[in-house]
C-alpha cells in the first residue's frame, strides 16, 4: 500500500519540529530495495554499489539479478545511476539468480568489480569508469570451490606494499592473494574457518596500521561484528560489535568508508519493507551511520541506524542541472533507465513527494524554477520549504507533453526561497496515478 507512508509510525520517523527531512535518511534509498552496501571513495565522491532485491521477492527466497550504483557528496542526498552490471555480464554462469554482495576497488585507473554468483563462484568485471560499463575480462570464475557453496561476499583491499587480498565466505572465511592485474590469483586459497560470531559479509580494510575485518555477526538476528589483526592474513582477534544484533532487523552486511574527516558504516535492514507490511520477504534496504574509533584503534559501538542522525557534510547547490533521481527521501517513487541512457523518476502519484536536504538558495534567493518533465495528462508540482506543509514558494503547472517519454522543459516563478532549507516537491493531480516522468531540474 503505497501511501502507508502516512501511518503514525512513519510520521514519527519523518516529523521533527517541522523539519520533515531531518530523520528521512534511513533507509537512504527508497526507490528500490537495496542490500550489501559497498562504498568506494573516488574524486571526492562516495560511490555506493549495492545488490538489488527485486520488488516481487517472496518469503525467505532471494531474487537478485543485478548490481546498482548511487553517489553522494554530502552523505544525505543520493543520486541513482541504475544498474551498472548484472548476471548477464557473466556468460559462463549456470544460474539466473544470485547476484549477491559485491565490492568495487580501483587500481591503476581501472575499476574492478568482484561479484558472487551464488552457486557459481566469484567473478570479476572491469571498467575504465566507476560508472561502467563493466566487462568480464577472463570469461570464467576468479574463484570457485565447487565442493561447497561457501564462495560468496568477496571483499578486496590493496595493501600499502601493493599486494591485494580478497576475503570471502559463509560460513567459513577464506582469503587469497591477487596478482597486480587484479583478475588472477597468486598462491593457494587459505581457509581460516569460522571466527567467533562470524556469519558472512566480510569487509576488509586497513587504518592507522591496524587491519580490520567487519562482518555480519551472530545469527539470528545479525549485528555487525569486527576483528582486528596486525597482519593482512591474521590471526584475527574478534573484538565485539560495531552494531549489536536487534530484533528490528534480521540480517546485516557492513561496508565502511572514511569521507571528509568522518567514518561511516553502512548496513542493511528491512525498515523500508516495514513501511509496507510486517510480513517477511527478502526485500532489504541500505542505511548508514557515523562510526568512531577509540585511541587504541578499537571501534565504538554504533546505535541502530534509526536511532542516529547522519549530518550533512556539504550544502546542496540548486543553481545547476540536478538529476531528478537525486534525493534524500522519495518513498513511493521509482526510477527507470531512459531508452537512450540516463535515469528518470517515475511512478509519481498524487500526494507523493521528493525531498532534497540542506539546499542553499543563498541570500538573494531563487527567482525561477525550471524542470524537464514528460506527462500524458498534466499535473502540478508544488515547491515547499522544510516540509510538505512548509512555505509554498512556487507552483509548476505541468502541461501534457504528448507522452511519458516526450520530455519538455517548463518553468515557474519562485518567491521566498532564500537561505538554507530542505526542499520538498509535492506532486498533485486529479488523475491520481502516473502523473509524470521527471528527468532533471534547476533553480535560477
From TrEMBL:
Domain of life: Bacteria
Range of residues in the leader sequence: 1-24
Annotated keywords: Carbohydrate metabolism, Glycosidase, Hydrolase, Polysaccharide degradation, Signal, Xylan degradation
Residue span, CBM6 domain: 320-444
Keyword Kinase: no
Family per similarity comment: Belongs to the glycosyl hydrolase 43 family.
UniProt-listed GO biological process terms: xylan catabolic process
Statement: the UniProt record of this protein carries the keyword Hydrolase: yes
Site (Important for catalytic activity, responsible for pKa modulation of the active site Glu and correct orientation of both the proton donor and substrate): 153
Biological source species: Paraprevotella xylaniphila YIT 11841
Record protein name field: Carbohydrate binding module
One Gene Ontology MF term: carbohydrate binding
Active-site residues annotated for this sequence: 36 (proton acceptor), 200 (proton donor)
